[in-house]
Amino acid sequence: APPPPALAPPSPDGGPPDRGPRSDRAPKIYTRTGDAGFSSTFTGERRPKGDRIFEALGATDELSSAIGLAGEFSSEKGHTFVEQLHKVQCMLQDVGSNIATPLSSAREAHLKRTSFSEKPVLELEQWIDSYSEQLPPLRAFILPVGGKSSAALHFSRAVCRRAERCVVPLVQAGEADPNVAKYLNRLSDYLFVLARYAAMKEGKEEKIYVKPEP
Q1: 25 or 97: which leads in pLDDT
Q2: Contact 192, 131 (CB under 8 A)
Q3: Which of 39, 42, 101, 213 is the most buried (most CB within 10 A)?
Q4: CA distances from 75 to 65, 107, 113, 183 (A)
């Protein structure tokens, strides 16, 4: 099947992704085109579903879902950073579009629609610096706890690290933009800092790793 609509680039006029001739009937969710174990990249290549491109797409999708859950917990606590998390989820759609467009088969039209700049990376760095300045120094390893918001953000960080590990080989092979890997790297740092910040704002104690007695 082609990449899911959420991962496909928008149409040139800013509307939903191009999906061929319009119809008054709602499209079916299932297409049956992937039943043989193959799927399509945005450039039209048919590759096995176990291809590392689809592994990276899947990890990115999981990451966005994990962040969505963290956002829901954080919203219940009134955290003001929830809008940032929503923006991150939108950026992950662009990450997916870039991953789904292997540079080895991309035409100029594909590249224009799925390029990924360094600007989002720099924005993450600004957010990281802003929250870090408000946190106490980190002097020991902490466990991924600290309330539901914090724990969900820590979980998102772990998923982000896996997504980064899936993307790096694509970048090294020249199939994805290096800025995509940079974004995921900074995003994991952002989620870590944000998890600590959420725990602090909620008055939750950070639990420190203690080596068990032999």
Answers
A1: 97
A2: no
A3: 101
A4: 15, 41, 32, 24
* d(C-alpha 136, C-alpha 102), whole Å: 42
Quick check: is 212 in a domain?
no
The answer to the question of residue 77 being in a domain is yes
Structural domain range at position 203 = 47-207
Number of domains in the chain: 1
Phi, psi dihedrals of residue 39, rounded to the nearest 5° = -145, 170
Q: Is 23 within the bounds of a domain?
A: no
Q: What is the CATH classification number for the domain harbouring 142?
A: 1.20.1200.10
3-state secondary structure at position 146: coil
**How far is residue 141's CA from residue 118's CA, in Å, rounded to a whole number?**
31
In the chain, the percentage of residues whose pLDDT exceeds 70 is 73
What pTM was computed for the model?
0.81
Question: Which pLDDT band, with edges at 50, 70 and 90, does 141 fall under?
Answer: very high
**34-67: per-residue pLDDT in tens?**
655 756 555 556 665 767 888 999 999 999 999 9
Nearest to 58 by CA among 182, 175, 166: 166
